[in-house]
Amino acid sequence: MHDSAIESKKRIRILDVPVDAVSRAEAAAVLDALLRTEGCSLIATPNSEILWNAAKDAGLKAILDGADLVIPDGIGLVYASRIIGSPLSERVTGIDFLDAALCRLADAGESVYLLGGAPGVAEKAAERMRARYPALRVAGVCHGYYKPEEEAAIVEEINESGAAFLCAALGSPKQERFIHAHREALRVRAAIGVGGSLDIWAGVQKRAPAFLRERGLEWLYRLARQPARIKRVAVLPLFMLRVLAAGKPRRR
User: Fold this and answer.
1) Is the distance from CB of 46 to CB of 56 less than 8 angstroms?
2) In the chain, where are the structural domains located?
3) 8: exposed, middle or buried (C-beta count within 10 Å: 0-12, 13-18, 19+)?
4) How far, rounded to the nearest angstrom, does the alpha carbon of residue 119 sit from its chain's CA centroid?
5) Integer Cα distance of 223 and 167 in angstroms
6) Does domain 4-202 have CATH number 3.40.50?
7) Which of 22, 65, 106, 192 allows an S-S link to 135, with CB 3.0 to 4.6 Å?
8) What are the pLDDT digits (tens) for 140-190?
9) CB of 170 within 8 A of CB of 21?
10) What is the layout of strands, in order, in the sheet containing 111-116?
11) What number of other Cβ atoms are within 10 A of residue 143's Cβ?
């Protein structure tokens, strides 16, 4: 099945890893199209750290190559896109995209399955999601602290729930690998990996104030609250240096 929203999106490559040059509105339109498409569509939300890892991990890169929508979640991707001469119009965060997805699901009478977080987090996130969108149906929840041998049972539970949309908040690359590994078996129409978004929905973690988010400084807020993230944040300058070294791709 083809849809103009899907066909019209432009895919660029940063360190040879794919990123879709979509605005928030365009990403939402692609989601609408994917929810009308048969099979399980994979939506990825990479930031600079994930792109850095994918550039070194052929398996993760292949998963992103096969994704139906790769959202530019990270100010570093916006800067990198300008360096390579294919500027992204804006950063589209995974949590903002998830909010838009929940709104659409509620309006359409469709349901979501929440997978991830510590025990109790998905339940609390579901409660807050329903408070924000009373028409939203949360078909089921499962924490992310499961054993590998339990994955088949989790997939079956997701299928039996009848959910149209799977929110996998398992952290990268676990969430992308889970969706990819079970893509043929999953009967949801779209699945997204959204990192720690359920923690924010549940109120376990706070999101950066709007004025910091608007300036691309959400990473600084998270670092101030969680100093242990310093090793992850250190990837950003390395990522930018590698993009600068690679420069603009040569035209053939």
Assistant:
1) no
2) 4-202
3) exposed
4) 21
5) 25
6) yes
7) 106
8) 999 999 999 999 999 999 999 999 999 999 999 999 999 999 999 999 999
9) no
10) 69-70, 41-44, 190-193, 165-169, 111-116, 137-142
11) 16
